[in-house]
Design goal:
4 strands, mainly alpha, two-stranded parallel sheet, Rossmann fold
């Protein structure tokens, strides 16, 4: 979900595990030379999702990386399948109220540019939470711990899983 901490935590985990970090949204913007809001404006959500799927297909074939995806990547079954086959999937869970608090000042999130953004966060959560849980190898509560402590705990879990 937007605001759960994917990019922040992903960077920390990658550093701790000494692996390259990729943020699919940043990679998409870099390759296209425009921001995600511009993509939404020009192509709508379907056009954005097509481009997101293409980037994801390229990124998941890499090995030994940490990847942060956009929150809506789970909406397409093909993306869920790619993620599941590509490695360990973490779902960083946070309640809608927390997500709203973390994102309410952002102008870079096109799906939250709605007449009632808080209601939109709740709607997105209702649509996506079960998909995230179905896909995830590990569900992580991202609102209860400081990011550094959470990164340390996840690092330990991922290292243990790699040894198993």
């Amino acid at each position: 979900m937007p605001g759960c901490g994917k990019s922040t935590l992903g960077r920390l985990i990658a550093k701790r595990l000494e692996k390259p970090f990729f943020d699919a949204d940043v990679e998409l913007e870099r390759r296209l030379g425009v921001t995600i809001p511009v993509i939404f404006e020009l192509e709508g959500e379907p056009g954005f999702r097509d481009r997101e799927e293409t980037i994801l297909a390229e990124l998941v074939i890499q090995s030994n990386i940490v990847l942060s995806t956009g929150g809506g990547v789970v909406l397409r079954p093909s993306n869920r399948e790619r993620l599941k086959q590509g490695g360990t999937v973490l779902y960083l869970h946070a309640a809608p109220a927390t997500l709203w608090e973390r994102t309410r000042h952002s102008k870079h999130r096109p799906l939250l540019q709605a007449p009632d953004p808080y209601a939109r966060v709740q709607e997105l959560y209702a649509m996506r939470d079960s998909l995230y849980r179905e896909l995830a190898d590990v569900v992580v509560e991202s609102e209860r711990e400081q990011v550094s402590r959470l990164a340390h705990r996840l690092e330990q879990q991922l290292r243990a899983a790699a040894r198993a």
